[in-house]
Each structure stands twice: as structure tokens, then as C-alpha cells.
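User: Assemble these into one structure.

Assistant: Restating your components, then the assembled model:
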Amino acid sequence: MVREPVFQSDDDNDGGPPFDVPTSAGFPPDDARHDEELRPQRLDDVVGQRRVVERLRIILDATIKRDEPLSHLLLDGPPGLGKTTLATVLPKELGVELQITSGPSLSAPKDLLPYLTNASERSVLFIDEIHRMPASVEEFIYPAMEDFRVDITLGEGLNARTINMKLQPFTVIGATTRSGMLTAPLRDRFVNREHLEFYEHEELMEILTRNADKLKTELSQEAAAELARRSRGTPRKANNLLRWARDYATSRGDGKITDKLAEEALEMRGVDIRGLEGQDRKYLTVLSSVFTGGPAGLNAIAHTMNIPPDTLEDEVEPYLLQCGLIQRTPRGRVLTDDGLKHISG
Ligand code: ADP
């Protein structure tokens, strides 16, 4: 997912300088370039998220039995947990077409119009980062989602007239890392909403084992366990660490990822025992030393680290919160005792 260095936050925004794109210990930040190769193709291949998948199966089954389009679906959760995966698997299960776009690339209704008019009957339109769609596009999509029509205004002033255009019945699947930033009217138009959680250790091990097979790489059980432990509950991270360990094992060994090579690879990449990397540890250190443990506002921390607040809020904080290393309070972020121990230990 490409992140733009923009301010979009709820606290102390003082419109500071633009940010450098962050890197972690000299490594590129996790990116989605390689996702396609390892992405599950069917719902049966999706590991974990058991409750969500069960509910989606019910919805799919009912949709097929009633011979209707799938109802609109909103997926939310931190990056790399499988929102795009589910959005691409569902149309495959239904045998319908899929179009993909994202909130930031829809700057005006005219950008959305071709997707709506191209949408074939029962097809799926996936809108990633839907919380970043501007208000004008949001208003334009309401009648499309509700009544399968768009209202197009032609001309200006006295000569202006509105044309109603009928669309094929279709489905919007929206994905967001910030469901809280969605307006209530947009959120309400999604009949189904699912929240994705971080993955359990065994689930990550299974993903790693399957993907090592796909990459035709030998991965020992101990190495899989080590990679899973340091994947921050996130399949995309697990895949990235697997690729790195594979490169390392190819360069330093015979290509087989043994527990020893996996450990060396993780060490070299600067991934610690909890899966934290340079940027995460810097966050904790800044909160501890510059802000004496907090409370500190997100933007103040972001400025000190020279990283966009969006990146911190989406990619760094969720896992630190999940591990109990920081807390979010009404007055700002606070370092916990565990957080302090982690950086001092
Ligand atoms: P998001 O859209 O939430 O940022 P993606 O769906 O792009 O995340 O997931 C990133 C990668 O992680 C996928 O390409 C896939 O290889 C892997 N992945 C995500 N969820 C799962 C899952 N439930 N089972 C197996 N692999 C998964």
C-alpha cells in the first residue's frame, strides 16, 4: 500500500514540514508489491479469521440461493491482515467480475463514474482505503449503492439539468484501516461490516508453511515458529520475513531455511523477539526519552520521528497497543511498564 505523506489526524496537527518516507533499519517498509503471488485464491485457502470467514460463507450461500448481488461489505483492520485478500476471493467464489480502485485515486465523481458504468451485473467494486474518498465522491456513490443509479449534473446555472443513469446491480466492498474516519452515512450503507484481528501464532505458522511451499523453499518447523513469533500477528509481515529469510538462506546457505539461518536473518534485519523493528523501537524510545513516557499527542511523536502521523497510526501503533507496550488515553499516548521494560531490556 503506498502511503502519501499527508496530515490526516485527530490531534495536535500544526501543519509541520513534509516527511521523508520512512525506512526501517535500511530495509524498505513492507510493501504490497509481492502480495499477488502469495494471495489465497479461494475462501478455503484463507487461514484464520475463523468467525469472519464463517459469516462470509453464510452471506455467500444466501446470495447464491437467492440469486441476488452480494450486499455491500466493509472490511476494517490494520494493514496486511487480509482485507484485499477477502475482497478478491469473494467475487471468485461467486464467479463475478472484480474492479479495483482506492479512495486516494478518486479525487472527483468523474474518477468514480467509469467504474460504476463498467460494473457488470452482480460484479464487485473494491475500494481500498475508502476512508480517503473525498466528500463529493462519497455523496456521488450513495445513490449508486442504494438504488443502483447515478445523478449527473450537466451544464451550469439556469441551464443545469440532472440526468439519472441506471446502473447494473453491483456490490461495493470497502476496505479501511480507520473505520472511525468513515462518515456515518457511508458506514450505514454497508449492510455487512467485518473487523479483522491480528493472527494467532499457529495461524501464522500455517501461512508460512503454505507459502514456503508456494515459493518452493524448504522451511523447518522451528524456523517457521521463529518467523511466526516475529511477524506481529500480520500475514503480510510473515510473508516479507519469509522472503528475506529465503534470500538470506540462499546467500549464506543452500537455500533451506533452517532455524539457525532464520534466526541470523531476523537478527540482521533488526527484528526483535516481539517482532518490533527499528521504527517501532524508535517510537517507544521517543515516547520514553523525549516525552518522559507520555501522555504525548500522535503528531508530536510523528514530528519528532519525522514520520507521517498516518503511518504511525496505521502501521506502528496498532501492534504496540495490541502487545500492551503503549496505551491510548484521552490526553495522548502513554508508555506502559512493559513498553519501558522492552526498550530497557
Ligand atoms: P490488507 O488488504 O488488509 O492490507 P492483504 O489482503 O493485501 O492485506 O494481505 C497481504 C498478504 O498477506 C496477502 O497477499 C496474503 O499473501 C497474505 N494474507 C493475508 N490474509 C491471509 C489469510 N487469511 N490467509 C493466508 N494469507 C493471508
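The chain has a mean pLDDT of 90.
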